[in-house]
Specification:
The protein has 4 domains: 304 residues, Aminopeptidase, CATH 3.40.630; 127 residues, no CATH class; 103 residues; 291 residues, Class I glutamine amidotransferase (GATase) domain (Rossmann fold, 3-Layer(aba) Sandwich). Helix 3 runs parallel beside helix 7, helix 19 runs antiparallel to helix 20 and helix 19 runs parallel beside helix 28. The strands form 11 sheets. Strands 27, 28, 29, 30, 32, 33, 35, 40, 41 and 42 form a 10-stranded mixed sheet that branches. The protein has a 7-stranded mixed sheet with strand order 1-2-4-3-5-9-6, sandwiched between helices. It has a 6-stranded mixed sheet with strand order 19-25-20-24-21-26. It is an alpha+beta fold. Strand 29, helix 22 and strand 30 form a beta-alpha-beta unit. One of its GO terms (molecular function) is zinc ion binding. This is Peptidase.
């Protein structure tokens, strides 16, 4: 027996040793033909004293993807090794990674950087610059280029090419490079999104195998949710240049604007099965761009094409690349730079097998970006003086009295919403626009309001005036004009594409007006305003707190978006907080509806220093907390012990994420909570949603979805949680699964599910309208002693709807024309708590979103379209058209009130079919379910972090929802 056990033990020991040996072996991959790239990226004589990229990275440049840390270490080493490079840290990312740009030139040029920047600033603002001095400046100025790469973190080849370019420029001993540096200052921004690139390179590390992978569908190339394209908060930084939401952008824009570069390139990647695209763009092209922009774009393209032809590389221009939206890096083109986009077929290391069976290697992709860089620099240096002359002529035109911008001013009305007002001004100052305010009230005729109506604009004292006649006229117009014009020929082609196959020429949103995005009221004034103005002066932050002896409460005005964060942060610190559900007047001070109240009576047993916490929180949020000594309201206005002073509940927020969730919408909501509220919240994995204990949360947000939907068992979980008192907030593409009739979760429906009962939705709409009126004919009959023989029913003069089949067919047709991004006017219910802090009319950014229908079972807090009273003469023509028959006017499914029309489009491309389909539909709905509530947003309320009016609606839902919209249990009994 012992002998058997010894033999058995020996066998197991041998097996363990052999298994361990095999476990440590990695098989050598089989050969893959076509993976070797024979061309050298770097060739010529290089200074041996300057470390090579390979010595710093541990691999030849372009063979693998350099991490953000490797990029920073490399350029810092080169700065220490060469007198031809100087680094400038211009920002820190959200994850505290440094962003540098490298200034590359001769030591002589680097020694006079400040003089060069001063000369550039004089050309940029040529007021008072005579021709002789201008010529001297141009003669002595070197060419200036800003070369930027990989703003999308998983579009990696550009940043790797930037390393090759920096090394080539500072280490090459060739005469042509020395000549190039003597005539230019080259600024290289090597990696514009280090947080996204770090996420991407980590995913590469995790998905890399022993064998090269050239299948673009594999995770090595496709990446993992949320992918590396975006920054920490999952924003696309290449849409942020006019929005200025993120520190990476703010630092970058400040730097670019200080340099006024002649050339700006932006190195990207696109679909793996493509080739290589570069500028110029095709239509639509923004009308505010200069003519010389197109001229020089063609010249640069011709020489870049020649460089590619010499290598026998494929490329193209135009096609999908349009240039309407000014918020890309191409914003610099509106400031006078020649802007060139690079788009390289994307892969992650190794390479990708393309449809022609050729492997496009990563090294070749990097080489494409490098050759493009050097070709563009050569063209710039050879044409720099003429480009400066064209630039100066255009800048002189911008400030002249006979340009297209000469007699236009923008007037932005002052508002009690200080956070929003200062945020708008910050963006204007970021771009260096000249700002003024009115010193007294004034008015201007023939002004245009945001609905496109010609009106007399009444401008109170303190109105912000931005005159379009100024050096940055082109960018200013692009950011503030109410509409970006598109040629009829382009619109014809767009409609043809829609009808032919449902595609579009539009690559991005067609509306972005900054006053509308920020939700501030503005006018376009057709004159150069020059009287009763003073230069804009920054206001001091408000005093955090005004204390009074024997005060009973503190109040922060609810007109300011920051008031919501004030309430949220106090709730998180354990204070009891109320909100006033009606306009109020206390201690002779007017307070807006939605004002936040901290009542000492509620906080009698609070153990902290109430006054100190209120003061410090008010300071954090830059709001003023006003002490009051009496709770008695003025006249019939609310008193502090009444029902209008509503008690809030601490929000306990969770956001669903991953899976098919839209990364942009999720990131925008996350960023909004952290930047506006700064309170703790949780992010839940959609994949394990059914296993989470939702009782920990009283507010759950389901962002928009790219694909997929909640399953029936998950909706059942939600149903139980909402009925128990939860606040569910669902957005855009997450809504259809929740409002499907079969799941019986919500009473709200999509338009295409309502045709059988469409008249009931029209009746609810009419009832809403009647409830808002201040005069009723029936009042005169109230005191009659007779029973009424005749009743006016709201549906009596309504034309019956078409049959269900016809309505469905019509909707299928209308739905073909939904926008890629337009701003429409919406009306809000001014008596609903969700509308605190927004105007009766607010701008809403829409695209191909669900069309939501709300009847009497739910509350339509915001509907698309605003009613405007018709001119009397116009109404008489309407009456005459009915020839004494009952007047029955409709927009799509919805009836119009007599003497009123529905205004909808504010900005962007909105086909008539789309406007009819979405007219009077619900943008924001709220309905009770058990002890809880369901809140639905038809489109994303925080688009790119910049739609601030609709973002306020979301903040209200997040912070006030648990207290104002649900039935909560009295605890601690």
């Amino acid at each position: 027996m012992i002998e058997y056990l010894l033999r058995r033990l020996a066998f197991l020991l041998i097996l363990a040793i052999s298994t361990t040996s095999f476990a440590g072996i990695k098989m050598k991959p089989t050969p893959l033909t076509g993976l070797d790239y024979s061309k050298k990226l770097l060739s010529g004589n290089y200074d041996a004293a300057i470390p090579t990229p390979e010595s710093l990275l541990g691999f030849p440049v372009g063979q693998r993807t350099a991490t953000p840390t490797q990029i920073v270490n490399s350029i810092q080493t080169w700065e220490q090794s060469s007198d031809k490079i100087k680094l400038v840290e211009y920002a820190r990312s959200h994850e505290n990674r440094p962003l540098y740009y490298a200034i590359i030139s001769t030591p002589a040029n680097l020694a006079k950087i400040d003089d060069i920047k001063n000369d550039l600033a004089q050309l940029a603002n040529p007021k008072g610059l005579n021709a002789a001095n201008a010529k001297k400046i141009i003669d002595r100025l070197p060419a200036v280029a800003w070369m930027a790469y990989s703003i999308h973190g998983n579009e990696s080849s550009g940043a790797d090419a930037s390393l090759a370019a920096i090394y080539h420029l500072i280490a090459s001993q060739e005469n042509d490079v020395a000549d190039l540096l003597s005539k230019s200052v080259i600024i290289i921004d090597p990696s514009m999104n280090p947080d996204g690139r770090a996420r991407f390179t980590k995913a590469l590390e995790q998905n890399r195998g022993i064998a090269p992978n050239v299948d673009d569908q594999s995770m090595l190339h496709s990446g993992l949710w949320p992918y590396g394209r975006t920054n920490h908060y999952l924003f696309d930084l290449n849409r942020d240049f006019i929005l200025g939401v993120h520190p990476e952008t703010v630092g970058r824009v400040k730097a670019i604007n200080q340099w006024h570069p002649q050339l700006m390139i932006d190195g990207h990647e696109m679909g793996a099965q493509s080739t290589y695209l570069f500028a110029p763009a095709r239509e639509p092209i923004n009308k505010n761009l200069s003519k010389y922009s197109k001229k020089w774009g063609n010249i640069f393209a011709k020489e870049q094409a020649g460089a590619f032809d010499s290598h026998n590389w494929p490329y193209y221009t135009g096609e999908w690349f349009e240039n309407l939206y000014p918020g890309y890096s191409s914003y610099a083109e509106f400031r006078g730079s020649i802007h060139i986009l690079y788009e390289q077929a994307r892969m992650s290391e190794d390479g990708v097998r393309q449809r022609n069976n050729r492997i496009l290697t990563y090294q070749e992709a990097v080489h494409h970006q490098l050759i493009s860089t050097l070709a563009n620099l050569k063209t710039l240096v050879n044409n720099s003086k003429e480009i400066y002359r064209d630039y100066l002529a255009d800048r002189r035109k911008n400030v002249s009295a006979d340009s297209q911008f000469a007699n236009i001013s923008y007037a932005i009305l002052p508002t009690k919403n200080r956070k929003r007002w200062l945020g708008f001004i910050r963006l204007m100052e970021l771009q260096g626009f000249e700002l003024f305010t009115t010193t007294k009230s004034t008015s201007f005729s023939n002004a245009k309001n945001q609905l496109g109506e010609t009106v007399t604009a009444e401008l109170p004292k303190g109105t912000l005036i931005i005159r379009n006649r100024q050096p940055e006229a082109r960018l200013l117009a692009a950011m503030l004009e109410f509409d970006a014009q598109i040629d009829d020929a382009v619109l014809i082609e767009e409609r043809q594409k829609v009808l032919r196959d449902g595609s579009s020429l539009m690559y991005d949103t067609t509306a972005w007006n900054l006053t509308m995005m920020h939700g501030v009221e503005a006018f376009t004034i057709p004159t150069y305003i020059n009287a009763n103005l003073k230069a804009y002066e920054k206001s001091e932050p408000p005093k955090s707190i005004t204390q009074k002896p024997n005060s009973i409460a503190y109040v922060v005005d609810g007109a300011d978006d920051a008031s919501v964060g004030f309430a949220a942060r106090l709730l998180e610190q354990g204070l009891k907080v109320r909100v006033i559900d009606r306009q109020a007047k206390l201690d002779d001070t007017d307070f807006s509806r939605g004002s936040v109240v901290v009542y000492r009576y509620d906080n009698e047993f609070f153990h902290g220093n109430l006054d100190a916490i209120v003061e410090s929180t008010a300071k954090e949020m830059s709001v003023h907390a006003q002490a009051i000594v009496s709770g008695l309201g003025d006249g019939d206005l609310p008193d502090i012990g009444g029902s209008y002073f509503r008690l809030l509940e601490k929000p306990k927020i969770a956001i669903l994420t991953q899976g098919g969730i839209n990364t942009y919408d999720y990131g925008a909501i996350w960023h909004s909570i952290e930047s506006n509220l700064g309170i703790r919240h949780s992010h839940l994995d959609l994949g394990t949603f059914g296993y989470n204990d939702l009782r920990r949360y009283n507010t759950l947000v389901i962002p928009d979805r790219f694909y997929g939907k909640l399953e029936k068992n998950e909706i059942k979980i939600l149903d139980t949680w909402v009925k128990a008192g939860g606040t569910l907030i669902a957005i855009d593409g997450s809504i259809p699964a929740l409002v499907a009739p079969s799941v019986k979760f919500s009473s709200v429906r999509q338009l295409n599910k309502t045709f059988k009962d469409i008249d009931q939705y029209d009746l609810s709409l009419r009832q809403e309208w009647l409830a808002q009126q201040n005069e009723y004919d029936v009042i005169k009959d109230i005191w009659s002693h007779n029973a009424a023989e005749k009743i006016e029913y709201p549906w009596s003069d309504v034309k019956p709807p078409a049959n269900e089949k016809t309505l469905k067919k019509q909707d299928e047709w209308l739905s073909k024309f939904m926008p890629s991004g337009a701003i429409v006017a919406a009306r809000s219910d001014k008596k609903h708590w969700l509308s605190y802090g927004v105007g009766e009319m607010l701008p809403v950014l829409v695209s191909n979103n669900p069309i939501l229908m709300s009847d009497s079972k739910s509350e339509a807090v915001v509907r698309l379209g605003v009613y405007k009273e018709m001119d009397k003469s116009v109404w008489q023509k309407v009456l005459a058209s009915f020839k004494n028959k009952p007047v029955s006017r409709k927009v799509g499914w919805s009836s119009l009130p007599d003497e009123y029309e529905l205004k909808l489009r504010m900005s962007g491309l909105l086909w008539p079919e789309a406007s009819q389909r979405m007219a009077n539909s619900a943008y924001l709905t709220r309905e009770r379910k058990g002890n809880g509530q369901i809140i639905l947003f038809a489109s994303q309320p925080v688009f790119r972090g910049s739609t601030l009016a609709t973002n306020r609606l979301l903040l209200n839902a997040l912070v006030y929802g648990p207290g104002l919209g649900t039935k909560t249990v009295i605890s601690n009994l």
